[in-house]
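wait is this the right file?? whatever heres the structure
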């Protein structure tokens, strides 16, 4: 009972600091008696399964039901499914050695082909993996920073505004690193999402300033199940294309904003990842002339129906054959929402994405705060 009392003491402080809404005064703990919580505990009824408190690197096994971080942070309960709170822990993986990566070799495109257009005689016989190899080789960069203004419009005309910075490093073939930092509005300022993906597995962490230096670890796939920060993009939608994890199938060509488009369906290869993703597959429309992805269709995992469509608008040519969309629009057919990402700044220099920033320790020290 002494240990349980200490746990609930910490929990009371945690929930008050987050500032979530009250839905019920009592929340039964699975496998135990009822624990009466007053209004100050501010716990709402929707459970976050598997959430556990940790002291240092020691994670308790007692689940805490009834916790969601929906208003202050805008993170849906499903986003934090299977999460654990960890105080001041750091992965014992060590820093990946810096090395120059030749993207064309990573995706199986021979040297000298990455920047060239696909020839007309190869157009009929080219396979989906070949199309994706050329597309990735041309448009992915090992380092990328982008600052974006985010706006979500709902069917009633109400808007939700965000401003964030996104960083990615793809220079290590065995480790992809992503960091997203919220700057506006003040209620979510400093919230950060850190993702590190390896060929086998990965990890996702959320930093919430109200937790005073703690981070929430999201179990694999936890960030892909629902909308992130109240918008229509999931963390999975914001990642670079990774051909090691997908099986590609070519469909019939289509007319599109880029003239004529290749149509490629992307299916996750691993059954474990298939169960964690909200999608059965993604359908990419790729302009034949520029190999620029003009739009992406997202199909529901359970029903296989189209649930979202992403439009990469206002394309700009930046460096040789490199193209980027200055405006990205996600239309959600289930909710009627539309989320727009407007690009304000962009940088491909290695110095714009320092390697040390992709760690729990760097973020927990609040070095990412404006």
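ok assuming it is, sequence goes like this
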């Amino acid at each position: 009972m002494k240990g349980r009392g200490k746990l609930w003491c910490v929990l009371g402080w945690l929930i008050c600091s987050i500032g979530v809404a009250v839905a019920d005064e009592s929340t039964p703990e699975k496998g135990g008696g009822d624990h009466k919580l007053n209004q100050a505990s501010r716990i709402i009824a929707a459970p976050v399964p598997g959430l556990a408190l940790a002291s240092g690197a020691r994670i308790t096994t007692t689940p805490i039901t009834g916790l969601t971080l929906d208003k202050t942070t805008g993170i849906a309960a499903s986003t934090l499914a299977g999460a654990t709170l960890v105080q001041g822990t750091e992965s014992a993986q060590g820093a990946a050695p810096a090395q120059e990566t030749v993207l064309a070799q990573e995706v199986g495109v021979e040297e000298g082909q990455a920047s060239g257009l696909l020839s007309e005689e190869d157009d009929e016989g080219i396979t989906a993996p070949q199309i994706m190899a050329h597309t990735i080789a041309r448009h992915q960069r090992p380092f990328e920073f982008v600052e974006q203004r985010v706006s979500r419009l709902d069917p009633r005309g109400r808007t939700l505004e965000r401003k964030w910075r996104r960083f990615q490093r793809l220079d290590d073939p065995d480790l992809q690193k992503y960091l997203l930092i919220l700057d506006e509005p003040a209620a979510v300022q400093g919230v950060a999402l850190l993702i590190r993906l390896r060929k086998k597995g990965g990890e996702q962490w959320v930093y919430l300033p109200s937790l005073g230096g703690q981070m929430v670890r999201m179990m694999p796939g936890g960030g892909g199940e629902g909308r992130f920060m109240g918008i229509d993009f999931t963390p999975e939608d914001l990642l670079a294309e990774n051909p090691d994890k997908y099986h590609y199938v070519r469909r019939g060509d289509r007319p599109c904003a880029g003239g004529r488009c290749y149509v490629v369906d992307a299916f996750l290869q691993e059954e474990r990842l298939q169960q964690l993703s909200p999608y059965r597959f993604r359908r990419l429309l790729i302009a034949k002339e520029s190999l620029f992805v003009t739009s992406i269709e997202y199909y529901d995992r359970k029903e296989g129906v189209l649930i979202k469509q992403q439009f990469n608008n206002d394309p700009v040519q930046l460096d040789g054959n490199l193209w980027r969309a200055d405006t990205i629009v996600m239309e959600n057919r289930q909710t009627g929402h539309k989320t727009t990402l407007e690009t304000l700044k962009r940088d491909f220099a290695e110095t714009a994405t320092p390697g040390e920033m992709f760690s729990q320790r760097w973020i927990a020290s609040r070095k990412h705060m404006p």
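The mean pLDDT is 74. so i think its the right one actually
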